[in-house]
Each structure stands twice: as C-alpha cells, then as structure tokens.
Design goal:
mainly alpha, 3 helices, 60% helix
C-alpha cells in the first residue's frame, strides 16, 4: 500500500495556488481556464526546481509572464526579446 502524505500534498497545492492567485491580482485580470493551466504548469516546474514559497513562485511567475498577453500562444517570450 502506498502511503501518501496528504497534509504535505495539500500544503504544496496551497503554495502553488497562492502564487497563481497573486499573479492574477498583480495583473488585475480575471482567471481563465487556459491561463490558469499555463500558470499552474509553470508554477509546478518552478516548484520542482526548488522554489518553495508562494512569494518566490509569484515573483518568478510575474517575471516570466509580465502581462496577460504573455500567456497567449505564439506570444513573444522573455527569452526571445532583444
């Protein structure tokens, strides 16, 4: 039987959720399903890289996706800017 530590999983989800909510509040936009999927995926990648606080994750999300337009498919990424 696999022993899942549910309190740790809930804590992790709460950290990720708070970071994504902060991104939306910072950009003053209403959440959409597509944007939330992208932000959650990015937050999970950052979390797996060792960024563990909501503040740190939110800062990195805000830096990576500096506006709602940066979430659009085919949008210029920050690494492609000159």
């Amino acid at each position: 039987m696999i022993d899942f530590n549910l309190s740790l999983q809930t804590k992790d989800v709460n950290v990720l959720s708070e970071a994504v909510r902060t991104w939306y509040q910072h950009n003053r936009v209403t959440p959409t399903e597509r944007a939330t999927q992208l932000l959650c995926s990015a937050a999970m990648d950052l979390y797996s890289q060792g960024h563990r606080t909501p503040e740190e994750l939110a800062t990195l999300l805000i830096t990576r996706f500096d506006s709602p337009y940066s979430l659009k498919i085919n949008a210029t990424t920050s690494t492609a800017r000159h």
